[in-house]
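Need residues for this backbone.
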């Protein structure tokens, strides 16, 4: 593996170790260092060793000129193995080919493209290990960098090694991925002298010492500076009065080599350096256009003879990225534009690339090119690269003569930037658009974009009213879609944080001013978000008309499911979100899937489907972090905190609650802060600390508190009642519950009805309690096992205290069965203790699959028990099939089984009665 490298034993040993262990486990490492420091040489050494061991080696190299072409780097990497894409599931194969412009499918989600790439690599790696070598990652297009980061985090269970080289000082998704890093530094003095000695022919000792001082151990400098020194190709290279950065010296040294080339050879090099492809026919055709006459392939020999390039088959490659940079820097901007124009002229069969080069070949406004660029942004979107679309629209705006159209294009770019969650891009685009005269609709669109990143700002009633006014203007102008988007944004502000009753009422009024939109999912969701209690009856009435099976729009199902959750119809919300989840998974729409998972978690908690809550909340947090949606991530964290609390896992609950509180506190997200208090309250209650539980939960019912939320307070009703009775606060709790009785007259929210039917008898005097208990249990609570079990526990305990021992055993047994099944350990133990007090010996608790498996392991085990293959499970959970196999390998001994066929007997596949049952 030494490959003639001097002074790199430590780096080579690390890379050899990664390669040697690839069959047992995959890995990834990032080589970080300055230009010319030896990263590329180490990468080549790793590739050579991997090839020698029978690996498949795939390579990609970043080129600054192609950094805006979506998935150019990924296509370069995967092109040799695209023939194996036929083995991928159809949605994944279509996503990948659409990203490469080889399929005309719908725009794929970037995360889905990354999953397709992962599955393709694991498919290729199944017969023999695979090495991915990525050089100059900082110049790869951003979508490719995102995919590489995704792959590097997920290959640990696969025979795949990823070695990536990039320059220091280039932040991005890849450097933020938390991967192992190997800093490549300059050679020590002895090694540097050894390298220089091989290049020092004709140099004096003084010259050699000067080069050593200049190079600072940089291997490329030690090789290339002596060549420039002898040739004196760059005046002042050795004795310039001002210090020049080493990279600039090297580029000047390389640029000096171009001065002796013929004009046509320089044309060819410039075309190759600026063009995003390295095919010889394309380079020669563009060179002929630039030169104005026919050229022959032998002109490329000059660049090879100068040591700048090499020919590999039908491709031309630069010997080092600095050489490409040097060629570009050696030519003036006018020559750059001419080369771009020449490339555009020969790319008639590739309109997307043709337009890209035309846009860089001109300086003055040109409406024809601007229109082509606007059209080309749709191609970028279809290929899954919003960043490329944003650049195309921004450049289109720069080339547009009509200021109104210019402003609209900037706003469209800002919309796409919002879709990426990039507030840093949206701001400057809006600032630029504001300098142009905008139509009334575009002014409304700007209002929406200006506020969209501010969801959750507390008490900002003025901003909510502004959004409502903009929505009204949009509706008058005939853009109902924009009006609904604005009102949905306003409603979500009211949901996430307290904007006050007047602002909430204004949103509801503005929504009702759009009678033509009644029933639109945004209409329903905006109304539910703004006034979940006061408008609950209207929301539930609209939801009752929805036929879930007939709804084919996944986003509509998502919005309706969110509205059902907000309005308190948990079973309906579960059904809507379950169908939305399935469709969004199939479509690879991971950004929206994260919203669904975040809302499914609280619903599962409320109704008692706790095994599923653990899996959806964990996956929701992972997706939220991967798709960079912090608002939905914190919802998943808070939900997980409650989940751990009700299971009696206090330490984990408090840790997660603290994380959620810190994240939500910065934006004063009332709903999340209410969940944090609920998590802590249940944590204390599970330990029998009812005084603490009562003190924790009561602030959520106080409008003056930051954790007050008109809808989320309902989730704390049962805990309030239980902790009040056990801490001697019955009368105080009765006062709070009495205030909620008025809400029951306003909204038919099922969660309010069910939870209040528990609280009433628990807080009642003995003379009234039994009738209230019987009324509570006479309801259809099939979809509400958690409140039903708590009611049975409370009723059985009350009967035993009334000395009606035989009668008490029936509800206590039922409560114990359900509480044990859902994992409510502390409450199940209460039921067990009550049964023992009646003279009955209940069965001791047994360990279930949920007790020994993690949330993700339980999810995988349930899917495997339902008959899904590793590939199908991986597609559903966005993991590689090999990773699924590794999980199952660990799951079997935990459950004391040896095959998939035994899984069903060790798992409750239906769980408590609920949407999955």
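Answer:
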């Amino acid at each position: 593996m030494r490959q003639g490298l001097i002074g790199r034993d430590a780096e080579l040993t690390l890379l050899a170790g990664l390669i040697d262990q690839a069959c047992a486990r995959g890995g990834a490492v990032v080589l970080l260092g300055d230009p010319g420091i030896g990263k590329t040489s180490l990468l080549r050494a790793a590739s050579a060793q991997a090839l020698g061991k029978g690996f498949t080696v795939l390579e990609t190299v970043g080129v600054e000129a192609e950094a805006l072409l979506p998935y150019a780097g990924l296509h370069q990497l995967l092109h040799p193995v695209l023939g194996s894409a036929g083995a991928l599931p159809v949605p994944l194969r279509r996503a990948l080919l659409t990203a490469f412009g080889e399929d005309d499918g719908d725009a794929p989600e970037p995360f889905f493209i990354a999953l397709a790439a992962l599955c393709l690599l694991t498919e290729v790696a199944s017969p023999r290990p695979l090495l991915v070598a990525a050089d100059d990652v900082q110049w790869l297009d951003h979508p490719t960098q995102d995919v590489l980061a995704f792959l590097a985090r997920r290959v640990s269970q696969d025979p795949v090694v990823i070695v990536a080289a990039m320059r220091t000082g280039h932040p991005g998704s890849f450097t933020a991925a938390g991967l192992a890093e190997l800093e490549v530094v300059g050679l020590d003095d002895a090694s540097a002298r050894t390298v220089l000695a091989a290049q020092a022919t004709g140099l004096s000792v003084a010259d050699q010492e000067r080069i050593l001082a200049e190079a600072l151990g940089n291997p490329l400098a030690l090789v290339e500076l002596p060549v420039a020194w002898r040739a004196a190709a760059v005046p002042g290279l050795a004795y310039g009065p001002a210090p020049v950065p080493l990279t600039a010296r090297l580029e000047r040294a390389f640029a000096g080599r171009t001065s002796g080339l013929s004009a046509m050879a320089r044309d060819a090099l410039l075309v190759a350096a600026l063009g995003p492809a390295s095919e010889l026919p394309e380079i020669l055709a563009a060179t002929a256009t630039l030169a104005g006459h026919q050229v022959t392939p032998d002109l490329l020999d000059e660049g090879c003879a100068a040591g700048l390039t090499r020919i590999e088959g039908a491709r031309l490659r630069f010997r080092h990225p600095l050489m490409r940079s040097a060629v570009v820097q050696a030519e003036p901007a006018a020559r750059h534009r001419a080369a771009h124009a020449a490339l555009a002229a020969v790319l008639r069969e590739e309109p997307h690339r043709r337009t890209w080069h035309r846009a860089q070949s001109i300086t003055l406004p040109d409406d024809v090119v601007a229109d082509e660029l606007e059209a080309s942004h749709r191609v970028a979107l279809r290929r899954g690269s919003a960043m490329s679309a944003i650049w195309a629209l921004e450049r289109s705006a720069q080339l547009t003569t009509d200021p109104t159209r210019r402003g609209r294009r900037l706003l469209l770019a800002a919309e796409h930037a919002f879709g990426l969650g990039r507030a840093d891009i949206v701001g400057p685009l809006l600032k630029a658009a504001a300098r142009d005269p905008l139509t009334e609709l575009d002014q409304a669109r700007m209002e929406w974009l200006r506020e969209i990143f501010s969801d959750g700002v507390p008490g900002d009633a003025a901003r909510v009213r502004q959004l409502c006014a903009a929505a009204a203007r949009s509706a008058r102008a005939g853009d109902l879609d924009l009006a609904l988007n604005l009102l949905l944004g306003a409603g979500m502000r009211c949901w996430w944080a307290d904007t006050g009753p007047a602002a909430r009422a204004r949103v509801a009024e503005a929504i009702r001013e759009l009678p033509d939109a009644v029933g639109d999912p945004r209409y329903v969701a905006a109304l539910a978000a703004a006034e979940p209690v006061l408008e609950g009856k209207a929301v539930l009435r609209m939801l009752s008309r929805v036929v879930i099976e007939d709804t084919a729009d996944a986003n509509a199902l998502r919005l309706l499911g969110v509205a059902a959750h907000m309005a308190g119809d948990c079973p309906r919300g579960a059904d809507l979100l379950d169908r939305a989840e399935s469709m969004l998974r199939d479509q690879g729409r991971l950004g929206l899937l994260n919203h669904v998972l975040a809302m499914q978690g609280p619903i599962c908690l409320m109704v008692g489907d706790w095994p599923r809550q653990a899996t959806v909340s964990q996956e929701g947090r992972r997706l939220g972090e991967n798709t960079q949606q912090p608002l939905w991530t914190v919802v998943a964290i808070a939900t997980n905190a409650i989940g751990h609390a009700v299971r009696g896992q206090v330490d984990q609950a408090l840790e997660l609650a603290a994380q959620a509180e810190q994240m939500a506190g910065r934006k004063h997200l009332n709903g999340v802060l209410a969940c944090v208090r609920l998590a802590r309250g249940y944590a204390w209650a599970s330990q029998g600390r009812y005084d603490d539980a009562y003190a924790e939960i009561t602030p959520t019912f106080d409008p003056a508190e930051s954790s007050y939320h008109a809808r989320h307070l309902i989730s704390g009703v049962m805990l309030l009642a239980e902790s009040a009775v056990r801490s001697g606060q019955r009368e105080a709790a009765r006062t709070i519950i009495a205030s909620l009785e008025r809400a029951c007259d306003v909204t038919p929210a099922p969660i309010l009805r069910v939870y209040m039917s528990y609280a009433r008898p628990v807080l009642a005097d003995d003379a009234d309690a039994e009738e209230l208990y019987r009324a509570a249990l006479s309801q259809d609570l099939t979809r509400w096992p958690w409140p039903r079990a708590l009611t049975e526990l409370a009723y059985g305990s009350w009967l035993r205290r009334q000395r009606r021992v035989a009668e008490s055993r029936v509800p206590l047994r039922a409560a114990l069965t359900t509480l044990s099944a859902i994992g409510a350990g502390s409450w199940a133990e209460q039921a067990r203790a009550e049964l023992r007090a009646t003279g009955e010996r209940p069965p001791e608790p047994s360990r279930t699959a949920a007790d020994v498996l993690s949330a993700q392991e339980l999810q995988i085990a349930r899917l495997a028990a339902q008959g899904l293959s590793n590939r199908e499970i991986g597609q559903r959970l966005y993991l590689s099939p090999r990773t699924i196999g590794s999980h199952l390998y660990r799951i079997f001994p935990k459950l004391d089984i040896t095959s998939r066929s035994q899984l069903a007997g060790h798992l409750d596949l239906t769980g408590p009665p609920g949407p999955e049952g």
